[in-house]
């Protein structure tokens, strides 16, 4: 049976994943478009930076974000000067950390979708005197729809499952920064295995359904 604390953690996780995914789609789309189209010498560097969370331990990423966003970090100085306080141990801080942590799970599927389209549709749109913005939203976005769907699903699911980064940045504050993964940890630490089983089983089922949805979609894979 789920307690009020468990339900609060589930709601906070859903809210965090939703806001993070929406932010990632806005931030990740231009990055993916640039990586798919550019011939710049720094393409490899930018691609490596975007993909870094795939191989970097979450606690390492969380530690450096904590330093950067903290009261003595550059971002912390900026937010304090603007009267916003500091981001660590706040819900806003969780969103910022989650955007960095889940960025490659949105950028890479979008980049692959854009690269698969090729330059021909844009060339045809240009002959019809369509502006770059019109060409992108009326030609590229519909053609890349499977990539957008995959990116959104992966970004949401990856945010739901994160632990190390959210614990480093958000701590363990009930109804403020305590997400499902941290709540499971608390149950295990308190030897409340039955409660941990309920939440962990829900996470397992959710993860399986996400992967099943992705692999069931015709012509769609997680990574190409």
How would you describe what is shown here?
The structure is a single chain. The protein has a single domain, classed as MetI-like (MetI-like fold, Orthogonal Bundle). It contains eleven helices and no strands. It has helices at 4-37, 43-51, 58-69, 74-81, 91-117, 120-127, 132-143, 145-161, 164-170, 180-189, 193-216. It is globular, with a radius of gyration of 20 Å. Residues 220-224 have low confidence and may be disordered.
How helix-rich are the residues, as a percent range? Answer: over 70%
At the fold tier of CATH, the topology name is MetI-like fold
Task: Please write the string of helix (H) and strand (E) elements.
Answer: HHHHHHHHHHH
The CATH class designation is Mainly Alpha
Structural class based on helices, strands and sheet pairing: mainly alpha
Radius of gyration, taken over Cα atoms and rounded to an integer in Å: 20 Å
Structural domains: how many? 1
Determine the N-to-C terminus distance: 40 Å
Shape: globular
